[in-house]
Amino acid sequence: MVITRTDGKIPEDLLADEAVTSKLKTILPEESQWFLSKQEEGVTSIHVLYGLIQLYSGNKPKSGWGNPIRGCDTGIGDDVERLYRIFRICNEISNPVSISVDNYARLFDILLTAHTRLDSDGALKDKHKVLADKLKAIINPTWSQSINKAIYSFIKNPSPWQQ
């Protein structure tokens, strides 16, 4: 979407061009380059899309590609970099139980905020609402936990309701 807005081409069109895939090979990590040989998988590869955005979106993060992003940096490139960093962090988690709920909540909060800014024209409004609701339920588990606790209590001791 970011590429289409700025370059006028969709990722499929860009990946069909050998000059583009050659440029991508210079910026993608070696372990991600195999996606380029598979047209279908390349279009959905986070690594490939991140590379295409670097090359064609014209929206560079204020601190540069691959560098940490400050909280006050909220441009398109900054949010793309945030999302890519979260993707890489999540991929490196070998034992999900070792991460605290607060840390997961922080990652989800960053995802939700970046997603909201990137969909500024509301093209994904309906899908965004579903994603936002799911992320909010994960970020703020107290409401869902209290509902679950109430349901569990009712199932365990329904007597006041049976009278």
Overall shape: it is elongated
Spans of 5+ residues with little confidence (pLDDT < 50)? none
Most strands sheet:
none
Tally the structural domains: 2
Q: What is the helix/strand order?
A: HHHHHHHHHH
Number of helices: 10
Rounded to an integer in angstroms, the radius of gyration calculated over CA atoms is 21 Å
User: Overall pLDDT, averaged?
Assistant: 75
Number of strands: 0
Provide the structure class.
Answer: mainly alpha
Fraction of residues in helix: 55-70%
Strand coverage percent: under 5%
Note the gap between the termini: 58 Å
Write a structural description.
The chain is mostly helical and 163 residues long. It has two domains: 1-58, no CATH class; 72-154, no CATH class. Helices cover 66% and strands 0% of the residues. It has helices at 2-7, 11-15, 18-27, 39-44, 46-56, 76-91, 101-118, 125-139, 141-156, 159-162. The radius of gyration is 21 Å and the shape is elongated. It starts with a helix and ends with a helix. The mean pLDDT is 75.
What are the key terms here?
66% helix, 10 helices, mainly alpha, 163 residues, elongated
Summarize the model shown.
With 163 residues, this protein is mostly helical.
Present the secondary structure layout.
Elements: H1 2-7, H2 11-15, H3 18-27, H4 39-44, H5 46-56, H6 76-91, H7 101-118, H8 125-139, H9 141-156, H10 159-162
